[in-house]
Amino acid sequence: MKQDVEDYCRSCLRCIQRKTLPTRNAPMGHIESQGPMDLVCIDFLSLEPDKGGISNILVITDHFTRYAQAFPTKDQRAITVAKVLFEKFFVHYGLPHRIHSDQGRDFESKLVHELLLLLGVQKSRTTPYHPQGDPQPERFNRTLLDMLGTLTSEQKTHWSHHVATLVHAYNSTKHDATGYSPYFLMFGREARLPVDMAFGVTADDTPVKSHQSYVERLKRNLQQAFEKAQVASGNRNQQNKARYDQKVKFHDLQPGDRVLLRNLGIPGKHKLADRWGSQPYIICSQLPNIPVYQIRPEGKNHPIKTWHRNHLLPIGPTVREPRSVDDKPPKNT
Predict the structure, then answer these.
(1) With pLDDT > 70 as the criterion, what percentage of the chain qualifies?
(2) What gap in Å lies between CA 246 and CA 28, rounded to an integer?
């Protein structure tokens, strides 16, 4: 009898929706890139408007070099994204092999997709409510916010005027993950800064005899830097993964398993809201080499969704859906 009561309570969908806490169920994975402009990540950073009415920054980071650019904008419309990408980034740095973003409507618009298709640039995106799938812009956003936060009260009223110089300072500083400055990995030389001019020093005083010798030296220096940066970045990624995976409670999912979706994106206050949705879903398949699953609603002919493992809660076949308050118990005959 005791076991039957416990099983009955554990199969209560209402209790599962509210009381089950989300946990880390998938080990950490890392996006990989093979060189500069192989993978470029984009994201929007929103903050309080300045005197010019600018309240957004389109952040663009090169995954391999960590080189970043940030462009203040008045809105997040698709036409703004397309215009900034083409006129302020592509024409200066060339076309990337792939662009990665979240699922924002501005990045997933038909206009942006057609622009990238026309230019031959691949497009990928994160799963819903999983910013860890696009980590570099998120991390750079925090750095940029910290730098903007150090401005004086007067400077903060027109913060958009200071973004370019702050980003250049970031690009000229050695990155802990690679051991090199993003500027050096992108261009093969260190940026010449005002302090260098003041002291009359340069990063490399070796004379250049010809264009050919300069190209050969540049290729040699970049090759050495790329190899060292990959090793340093790989070591940092392994350390982060080991620390993250210590708290992972892995539970493998197979096609046909029943799951609930985490209740995310709830507007307003939601302290009393359920942690998980009420609609059960069925696992269709797992994407190759990543903890991301394609799912469909149980008993409904709806489109397939793609969600990260950390936002899925496995439930057994015996979980009972709550009876509607309008349902009347059968009469005794």
Answers:
(1) 81
(2) 10
Non-local CB neighbours of 97 within 8 Å, separated by 6+ positions: 37, 38, 39, 121, 122
Tokens standing for residue 319: 């979980």
Tokens of 104: 């924002």
- Written as six digits, the tokens of 40 are 């470029």
Residues of each domain in the chain carrying CATH 3.30.420.10 = 39-245
Q: What is the DSSP letter of 64?
A: T
Where does residue 83 rank: exposed (0-12), middle (13-18), buried (19+ CB within 10 A)? middle
**Rounded Cα–Cα distance for residues 172 and 175 (Å):** 9
Tell me what percent of the chain is helix, strand and coil, each rounded to the nearest 5.
Answer: 40, 15, 45
Amino acid symbol at 319? V
**Residue 122 DSSP symbol:** E
- Confirm or reject CATH 3.30.420 for domain 1-26+252-314, answering yes or no: no
Q: Which residues contact 141 (CB under 8 A, 6 or more apart)?
A: 43, 45, 59
Query: Where exactly does CATH 2.30.30 map onto the chain?
Result: 1-26+252-314
Q: Which CATH number fits domain 39-245: 3.30.420.10, 1.20.120.530, 3.30.360.10, 1.10.10.10?
A: 3.30.420.10
In 3D space, the residue among 78, 86, 85, 124 whose CA is nearest the CA of residue 102 turns out to be 124
How high is the pLDDT of residue 313?
Answer: 86
pTM recorded for the entire structure: 0.69
CB 282 within 8 Å of CB 258: yes
d(CA 81, CA 112): 7
* Model pLDDT, residue 3: 72
Nearest of 138, 139, 112, 111 to residue 124 by alpha carbon: 112
What is the C-alpha separation between 304 and 115, in angstroms, rounded? 26
